[in-house]
Structures are given as structure tokens and as C-alpha cells.
Amino acid sequence: MRFNGIEIGGMRIIACLGCLILLKVCESWIAISALDSTISARELELPVPIVTHPRCDACRYISLITDSYLREADEKLLENEELTPMEVDKISKQICKPDSFRDVKLISWNGDLRLSLPLLETKGQGTGAETDKDWAKKLSSHCRYLLDKMKGIELYDLWLRAGHRNPVSWLEFMCIGEGVFGDCLEEHDTHVWPWEGRHTYINKEEPSFQDRVIVNMNSNSYK
Q1: Exposure string for 64-97, b = 16+ CB within 10 A, e = fewer
Q2: Domain limits, the chain
Q3: Least C-beta-crowded within 10 Å: which of 43, 120, 121, 194?
Q4: What digits encode the pLDDT tens for the residues 78-98?
Q5: Model-level pTM?
């Protein structure tokens, strides 16, 4: 069976598109799986959280991957260089993609509902809890809610002052701070998180692999 030039060209285009999609999927898996080992390599010791509920776990994990993305990008700079507002904006979009939270699981551990997440003490602990929520999207929304309070270059400036020396200091700033940055000070979690309904993630520009930064209630209402 012979194919004409147009048919051959069409098949080549389809094959190329398939390869590009596969490459992007592989890049995403590589970047996220490297997060755990990147932060673990620093032998980071996290303080015991003041409270034990899903929103606090979410905030702690978001703070750690935010630190890891910014630190990785900052370490690539030459002396006296700083990230640009455009670079910080691109990084913040990458941090909050639902893919960053694909390993999240709602668990029951020591009588509390928690979130099992890489880098936290909850990983591999407890037993799975029934839930009808999409926790990856829920955490993605909360991530965007928190970083929206530190838009653009302000995120980088705050990180340089509060977290550059120690990731734990950045965790404390984001989760044991004032106002919206007090998720780990609330005694009880709330049924609906801010921005919980804003699940739509719009990524206008998919960065190349080189641009990716490799990182790291106890109420029945969560079931």
C-alpha cells in the first residue's frame, strides 16, 4: 500500500506531536520525583507542627516546594544577580500546578485527619481515609491563594529576607505567621478553604525543561 506525500507528511506530524506529549509527561514526572531527593539531601529537619490538620499540612508542603523552586533558580545566578519579576512569575505558576501535588493522600493518623505528602512526617503513615475531594486541585488552589498575597518580585524579596538562610524559617513565615499566613496556628481546619472553588489552572506558556526548577480536622467534612 502506497501513501502520497500529503499522507506521509500528516503521519509525520502526528508522530512528532505524540513524541512531544510523551516528552512533556516524562519531564513532569522527572521534575516532581526529584523534589523529594533534592530537599532530603539537605537533611532538613522539620519542627513538629503546632496543630495537626490537612490545611496546615498543605501549607507546610507548599512552603517547602516554594523554597526549593526559588532556591534552585537563585543558585544558578551569578554573584550580585537577582531573579527578574518575569522569572519569579513563571516560577510561581510552576509551583502551583496540580501536578506538584499529585502524590497527596488524605489519611487518618493518630486520630487526626492529615495529608500524606512527600517531605512531611506524614508520608507513608496512617491509613487512607475516604474522600470525594480532588486534593491535588484543592492544594493547587490553596497554593495560588497563598502566593497571590506575594505577587511577582515581592515573593522573591520576602523569600530572600525570610527563607534564604533556612527553609524552616520560610515555612514558619508562610504557615506560622500573621493573617493569611497562619494556617498552622488555627486550632481547627475549616470546611471550605479560600479559593477552593478556583480549580481552573491556566498556563499560558509551558516552559522548557531547562526553565523547570527541580524541587521539593478532625471533622468528617473532609470525608
Answers
A1: bbbbbbbbbbbeeeeeeeebeeebbbbbbbbbbb
A2: 5-222
A3: 43
A4: 988 999 999 999 999 999 999
A5: 0.73
Q: Identity (one letter) of the amino acid at 22?
A: L
Return the DSSP state at 205.
S
Cell of 162: 525570610
pLDDT value of position 107: 97
Q: How far is Cα 12 from Cα 8, in angstroms, rounded to an integer? A: 6
Cα-based torsion angle of the residue sequence 157, 28, 172, 198 in order, rounded to the nearest 10 degrees: 90
How buried is residue 175: exposed, middle or buried, by Cβ count under 10 Å (0-12/13-18/19+)? buried
94: left (phi over 0), alpha (psi -120 to 50) or beta: alpha
What's the grid cell of residue 83?
Answer: 531573579
In angstroms, the CA 165 to CA 171 distance is 12
Q: Which three cell numbers stand for residue 219?
A: 471533622
What's the rounded Cα separation, in Å, for the pair 212 and 159? 19
| Residue position matching grid coordinates 489519611 | 107
Find how far residue 121's CA is from the centre of its chain: 17
